[in-house]
Design goal:
Number of domains: 1
Radius of gyration: 18 Å
Bound molecules: zinc ion
Order of helices and strands: HHHHHHHHHHH
Helix content: 55-70%
Shape: globular
Number of helices: 11
Distance between the termini: 49 Å
Largest sheet: none
Length: about 200
């Protein structure tokens, strides 16, 4: 069966109209995990497209939203590896939530990300589990903040795949590179004012 959330929005809408497709399993799982949070799926799904210009970042977030990223729990379940433990700490099972939120390596890294934002005079504390997984839906400077959160999330996953642990120094270098790339794209598309508005605080510092 085609997973609805892989499809572009107009197709999603037409499928819902035609076949009455129900809520995807991944969303149901997240809804069950974030029972005390209101998850606005429309906003959550549109965010990657709004904040990132590169398709790989968008794809990464869609995979996370669809729970399609390989974790050791998943790899163990399908018999590819013998142990489900976390690639970072080796102490707990590596679920998506553990990898991105609760592993103590990840927690330490998010604290550094909060500090990094604080140095730009952008307050994102407290960062909830929901913010970490999906982004901050109602915050000032939301394009910039949510792009940084997306870059950080994607970086955590690349650390897992490369068998390293997340470092704010490496993240900072990645952000510099992405900023330069977006600046070049903005210049060539004559959209520099939009770029300057999004990256303003970062450029000033
Ligand atoms: Zn861990």
């Amino acid at each position: 069966m085609v997973k609805m959330s892989y499809l572009a929005k107009p197709y999603q809408r037409s499928l819902i109209r035609k076949f009455g497709i129900e809520t995807p399993t991944a969303q149901l799982k997240y809804n069950a995990q974030f029972v005390s949070d209101e998850l606005d799926w429309k906003k959550i799904y549109s965010l990657p497209h709004r904040v990132a210009l590169d398709t790989k970042s968008r794809e990464f977030q869609y995979k996370l939203l669809n729970r399609c990223l390989a974790t050791n729990v998943l790899l163990r379940k399908i018999g590819i590896i013998p142990s489900p433990v976390c690639s970072f700490c080796g102490e707990a099972d590596e679920s998506l939530e553990h990898l991105f939120v609760t592993s103590h390596y990840t927690k330490k890294f998010w604290a550094e990300v909060i500090k990094w934002m604080g140095n730009l005079d952008i307050a994102i504390e407290p960062l909830s589990n929901k913010d970490i997984m999906f982004g901050m839906m109602d915050c000032n400077r939301d394009l910039f903040v949510n792009h940084i959160l997306l870059i950080a999330r994607k970086y955590i996953y690349s650390c897992r795949c490369n068998k390293t642990t997340p470092s704010i120094i490496v993240l900072d270098a990645r952000i510099k590179m992405i900023h330069r790339l977006e600046m070049m794209i903005a210049k060539s598309c004559k959209k520099l004012p939009i770029h300057l508005k999004k990256w303003g605080k970062y450029i000033e510092n």
